[in-house]
Amino acid sequence: MGNWVVNHWFSVLFLVVWLGLNVFLFVDAFLKYEKADKYYYTRKILGSTLACARASALCLNFNSTLILLPVCRNLLSFLRGTCSFCSRTLRKQLDHNLTFHKLVAYMICLHTAIHIIAHLFNFDCYSRSRQATDGSLASILSSLSHDEKKGGSWLNPIHPHITPTVYMFTVTFDMVLSSVNSNLFLFLLIKK
């Protein structure tokens, strides 16, 4: 056990920092959208799913910027050979570049699933608040119109002339199709 810690301390530290950044970004974005006054009315319609979708989207952006760095050969060659600060410990870490690339891909898949599920709940909340007739704040906000003549909704993108089931099916099908396409691409990258 002692030799493993001596040999892999930098890898463990690097992974802990990367996971910590993911957790920090998710929690920070979640609290921003959950507590900010400018999202108060949208939260009344959607609940916490708005914050969950936005937080996972931020983590998706962060990990999508990182996924190609471990497989950039020129960058790895530069760090290995020409940098004087590149110690043996860092060179060992650079040899595990594909492992980190796979971990980032798994994190992207996880946040993609969270993002899609949160948006599915968003559409359900939008649909329920549009159909509600109980006089709750969510139903009143859904009936507010940005332009009374055109009848467009300002807070709720589901319009009364579109059947919510058809709208939700169309959007869900589009989201699932694009997710399967991107996850298939990530799966093919992982297999290499």
Automatic annotation (TrEMBL):
Keyword Membrane assigned: yes
Transmembrane segments: 12-31, 103-121, 166-190
Keywords, in A-Z order: Membrane, Oxidoreductase, Transmembrane, Transmembrane helix
Alphabetized GO MF terms: oxidoreductase activity
InterPro entries to which the protein is assigned, alphabetical: Cyt_b245_heavy_chain, RBOH/FRE
Keyword Transmembrane: yes
GO cellular component: membrane
Protein name as it appears in the record: NADPH oxidase 1
Organism from which the protein derives: Homo sapiens (Human)
Organismal lineage: Eukaryota, Metazoa, Chordata, Craniata, Vertebrata
Gene: NOX1
